[in-house]
């Protein structure tokens, strides 16, 4: 049964996996129970994710990705950078072992050389471009240079004065690296790779950046940030950072290098001062980000120019050091269950389906309470819903308000009607959601929590007995403590622009 369902999901997902969605995921592996590569691929396929970035070139992962249609960015880890930058032969050997051995069955599209080298391994900065060139030379020798691009991901902190974006520039300390790097990217048709974290900009701004602006939520028109030089309107931090990168490149006379956002995300849990690392904010950020990217909205400077974006990250990494938030950037637990269900209705198939495939009916927020009460009365009366759980002392009595109670009753009716279309309307005050509204002991009908045996967990990936990590090398850096440092000047500008 479980196997059949899995197979079904697999086939179902494969058939929907046609369009290139521009959305990818990062797969960090600092995880106690890393799922097997096959399980990882099954999850990706069930979620229609067709772009992935790996922080290394793990053999079993590369094998598992063969014939999946998934496009891969693989990485030269920072600890191999020095060796590769010092010898053509080492680079050639790396390409032979980690690329040529798997391509084309495994669709490696890009090699990321190092990770945030300028900010996390500055001593290696002088050899970064040589490493890229040696890898490129090896690809040419292997006749793979047209299919596979070479680049290197940067922290967006290397761009200074990000607001207004039109005044942004690369930290001049790094010009001796950035200029030859941009020349290389331009001559090979490769993208600038950037890690973009509005979360850190928001946290470090001490309240200057409004949360809604970081989360892509609608702002009042008079609160939108306007770049006084270009008169471009910025409705979110993400676009401002990406445009800052375009402007920083054009300041150096590079105007035709595309940008790929290699990391972006929001943590769903934190402690101490990490008040805004919540499931709600993480869901809002990632849902809005994905919609924004899939829409091909582009940025104010380059509207309609798609910016492929890799969500940080697929799994929560429980063994990462640092504050609690560091372990909670994932969309999924390692057993394959979602940490939260993204709100992506209408965004196409990608990530739109919770692996448990549940839908619920709930009361809309901000609707007329009298209409809700009338609909609640109807559901528990003529609608013949069992509303006994809503009685005082029963598990769904609290919170005792009409929104919570009608959500329970509407959902019970919707489930009773087999989720038939039209059974979640109630004169417009109800809506379908993929987020399980159950809380505590109040379990909503249709919730997987009410039925552990029915197989809702069939797509959950059992923790693997074998880990894919070698366990000792830090596979990637995530130097969150030093994200974009909006300087005092840009903060003041932001205050002026946002609040005037
Ligand atoms: C890899 O993916 C790209 C983008 O979908 C596609 O154009 C290319 O043909 C694929 N290459 C291989 C070898 O499958
Ligand atoms: C490295 O190899 C490429 C071609 O494979 C060659 O063009 C380049 O000159 C070599 N560089 C060195 C330093 O040997
Ligand atoms: C520019 O980069 C250098 C080297 O990492 C760093 O010391 C300096 O603080 C940076 N400048 C700014 C304004 O952040
Ligand atoms: C960019 O091009 C302009 C005009 O050709 C030139 O004046 C300027 O010096 C160039 N800037 C850089 C950094 O090369
Ligand atoms: C995406 O585009 C649709 C229609 O084109 C629009 O309604 C929606 O607001 C857009 N979403 C985002 C996040 O830009
Ligand atoms: C689940 O995905 C299918 C296509 O893969 C889509 O038609 C359906 O609307 C999605 N369900 C939800 C609740 O988003
Ligand atoms: C998921 O739900 C949709 C809509 O209710 C249904 O068409 C589809 O068959 C379900 N998929 C699975 C695997 O249960
Ligand atoms: C799925 O399995 C996990 C543990 O493996 C469990 O915590 C969770 O409650 C299960 N979910 C459902 C919907 O049964
Ligand atoms: C739980 O599953 C059993 C069959 O496995 C089914 O008969 C029962 O109605 C389910 N209970 C709920 C609350 O859905
Ligand atoms: C994987 O697990 C099997 C059985 O548990 C064991 O025999 C094998 O040595 C493990 N492989 C690795 C690489 O740990
Ligand atoms: C940002 O830069 C300023 C000045 O360069 C420095 O005083 C401040 O500590 C930095 N803030 C962060 C969070 O790095």
Give a structural overview.
The chain is an alpha/beta fold and 500 residues long. It folds into two domains: 14-49 and 152-356, Alpha-Beta Barrel (TIM Barrel); 360-499, no CATH class. The protein is 33% helix and 11% strand. The protein is built from 15 helices and 15 strands. The protein has a nine-stranded parallel sheet. It has a two-stranded antiparallel ribbon with strand order 7-8. The relative contact order is 0.14. Bound molecules: 2-acetamido-2-deoxy-beta-D-glucopyranose (NAG) (11 copies). The site of one 2-acetamido-2-deoxy-beta-D-glucopyranose has 7 residues, from loops. One 2-acetamido-2-deoxy-beta-D-glucopyranose (NAG) binds next to loops.
Which helices and strands, and how do they pair?
Blueprint: H1 2-16, E1 23-27, H2 37-46, E2 51-54, H3 59-64, E3 71-76, H4 81-86, H5 88-100, E4 108-113, H6 117-120, H7 125-141, E5 149-151, E6 153-155, E7 159-160, E8 169-170, H8 175-188, E9 192-195, H9 198-204, H10 211-214, E10 225-226, E11 233-234, H11 237-251, E12 259-264, H12 279-294, E13 309-311, E14 360-363, H13 369-380, H14 402-416, E15 430-433, H15 488-499
Parallel strand pairs: 1-2, 1-13, 2-3, 3-4, 4-5, 6-9, 9-12, 12-13
Antiparallel strand pairs: 7-8, 10-11, 14-15
Helix pairs in contact: 5-7, 7-8, 13-14
The structure holds 2-acetamido-2-deoxy-beta-D-glucopyranose (11 copies).
């Amino acid at each position: 049964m479980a196997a059949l369902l899995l197979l079904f999901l697999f086939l179902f997902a494969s058939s929907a996996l046609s369009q290139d969605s521009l959305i990818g995921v990062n797969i960090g592996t600092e995880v106690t129970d890393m799922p097997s590569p096959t399980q990882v691929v099954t999850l990706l396929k069930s979620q229609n994710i067709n772009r992935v970035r790996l922080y290394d070139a793990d053999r079993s992962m590369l094998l598992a990705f063969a014939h999946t249609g998934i496009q891969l960015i693989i990485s030269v880890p920072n600890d191999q950078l020095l060796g590769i930058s010092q010898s053509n032969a080492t680079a050639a050997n790396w390409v032979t072992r980690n690329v040529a051995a798997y391509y084309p069955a495994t669709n490696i599209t890009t090699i990321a050389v190092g990770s945030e080298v300028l900010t996390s391994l500055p001593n290696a900065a002088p050899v970064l471009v040589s490493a890229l060139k040696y890898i490129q030379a090896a690809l040419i020798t292997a006749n793979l240079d047209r299919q596979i691009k070479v680049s290197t991901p940067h922290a967006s902190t290397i761009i200074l004065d990000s607001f207004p974006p039109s005044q942004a520039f690369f930290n001049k300390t790094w010009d001796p690296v950035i200029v030859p790097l941009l020349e290389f990217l331009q001559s090979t048709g490769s993208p600038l790779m950037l890690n973009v974290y509005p979360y850190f900009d928001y946290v470090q701004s001490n309240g200057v950046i409004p949360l809604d602006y970081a989360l892509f939520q609608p702002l009042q028109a008079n609160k939108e940030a306007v770049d006084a030089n270009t008169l471009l309107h910025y409705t979110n931090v993400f676009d401002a950072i990406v445009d800052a990168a375009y402007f920083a490149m054009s300041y150096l006379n590079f105007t035709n290098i595309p940008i790929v956002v290699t990391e972006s995300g929001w943590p769903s849990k934190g402690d101490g001062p990490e008040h805004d690392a919540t499931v709600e904010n993480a869901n809002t950020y990632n849902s809005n980000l994905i919609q924004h990217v899939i829409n091909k909205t582009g940025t104010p400077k380059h509207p309609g120019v798609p910016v492929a974006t890799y969500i940080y990250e697929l799994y929560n990494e429980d063994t990462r050091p640092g504050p609690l938030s560091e372990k909670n950037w994932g969309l999924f637990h390692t057993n394959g269950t979602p940490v939260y269900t993204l709100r992506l209705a209408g965004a196409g198939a990608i990530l739109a389906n919770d692996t448990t495939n549940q839908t619920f009916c709930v009361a809309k927020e901000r609707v007329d309470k009298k209409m809700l009460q009338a609909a609640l009365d109807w559901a528990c009366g003529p609608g013949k819903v069992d509303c006994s759980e809503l009685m005082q002392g029963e598990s769904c009595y609290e919170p005792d308000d009409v929104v919570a109670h009608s959500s329970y009753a509407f959902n019970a009716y919707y489930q009773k009607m087999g989720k038939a279309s039209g059974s979640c309307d109630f004169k417009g005050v109800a809506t379908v959601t993929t987020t399980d509204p159950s809380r505590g002991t109040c379990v909503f009908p249709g919730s997987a929590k009410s039925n552990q045996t029915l197989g809702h967990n069939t797509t959950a990936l059992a923790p693997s007995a074998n880990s894919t990590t070698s366990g000792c090398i830090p596979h990637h850096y995530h130097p969150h403590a030093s994200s974009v440092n909006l300087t005092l000047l840009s903060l003041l500008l932001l205050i002026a622009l946002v609040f005037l």
